Amino acid sequence: MSFSTDVKKEISSNTLESCCMKAELYTIIRFRSEVVISLGSFGVELITTLSSTVREIVRLFKKLYNVDLEIIAIKKEKLDYKTRFRITLKENGTKILQDLKIIDVYYNLIDEINYDLLKKDCCKMASVRGAFLIQGSISNPEKKNRYYLEIVAPSIEDANFLVETLDQVDIDAKVLERKKGFVLYVNKAEHISDFLRYTGAINSLFAFEDVRIEKDSRNYANRMANCDIANGEKSIKAAKKQLKDIAYLNEHYGLLKLSPRLMDAVILRNSYPDDSLSELSERSEEVIGRYISKSGLSHCFNDLARLVEGLKK
């Protein structure tokens, strides 16, 4: 079972007020259904692959209009392993579609969104929920390197309505046009978390956040390990340069001519050729009888490098 399926199953299990149920059903029909005419009466056909979504659609029609639906399981095809369910509304279709303002009194399809049905904030949430149930998907956080949520809308007006609704709860969504329609997408992990919370998928939210925390911890550990390796390589390279400068001064200048401060740094480096400056600083009292800070040692070795440079010129 995919993460999207888990989310939709959880969303479908949440109860709604009657006004919100109507908003959800309206959006499901608008986003995915085909309005059909049979024997002079209007009906609706929807196709989905999720049994939980089928149950939700049946529940909405039953609760709101007390009608039964015909459900047919379409056999799997060779290249498609998913079972499809065709849901057909045959009775009272004209009355229901007119009540939802999907068709007008003259039996014409209404393209404009029924904003009267989506005035309340709870109904707007229900509309988003319905859109995701019937046309949404979300990447599995355990398998993907990026987080991504999308909803395919039938028109730019529908997509923009969802964007504006999500923006009201500080969820950043964008729209792009593809062959399959206008796609609303969210690609920031924290905003996907907010979407799950907004639509009532709390258990899925916890699962999503657990994966995020684990990934972030693993990435942090990897960054720290890479940083330690880089710092170690940098320290070794610096130590080799310092030993090379000391050898040059010993041959061309004479170490006895160095100041006590620089001589202490030379003794420390020769005693521990592979140590970092921090480690040399920690050993300083033991080796030379006085403490030299890391920055103090850095200044000493910079002075030695400048002395070598001057001699070479």
Break the fold down into its secondary structure elements and pairings:
Elements: H1 3-12, H2 18-32, E1 34-38, E2 41-48, H3 51-65, E3 70-74, E4 84-89, H4 93-99, H5 121-135, E5 136-138, E6 149-153, H6 156-167, E7 174-178, E8 181-186, H7 189-198, H8 202-252, H9 260-271, H10 277-288, H11 294-312
Antiparallel strand pairs: 1-2, 2-4, 3-4, 5-6, 6-8, 7-8
Helix pairs in contact: 2-3, 2-5, 7-8, 8-11, 9-10, 9-11, 10-11
What is this entry, summarized?
This protein has 313 residues and is α+β, with helices and mostly antiparallel strands. It is built from 11 helices and 8 strands.
Structure description:
The protein is of the alpha+beta class. The protein has 2 domains: 3-200, Homing endonucleases (Endonuclease I-creI), CATH 3.10.28; 232-312. The chain has helices at residues 3-12, 18-32, 51-65, 93-99, 121-135, 156-167, 189-198, 202-252, 260-271, 277-288, 294-312, and strands at 34-38, 41-48, 70-74, 84-89, 136-138, 149-153, 174-178, 181-186. Strands 1-2-4-3 form a 4-stranded antiparallel β-sheet. A 4-stranded antiparallel β-sheet has the order 5-6-8-7. A hairpin with a 2-residue loop joins strand 1 (34-38) and strand 2 (41-48). Helix 2 (18-32) crosses helix 3 (51-65) and helix 9 crosses helix 10. The longest helix has 51 residues, at 202-252. It is rod-shaped and about 110 Å long. The model has no long low-confidence stretch (mean pLDDT 88).
Tag the structure with descriptive keywords.
single chain; 313 residues; alpha+beta; Endonuclease I-creI; 2 domains; 11 helices; 8 strands
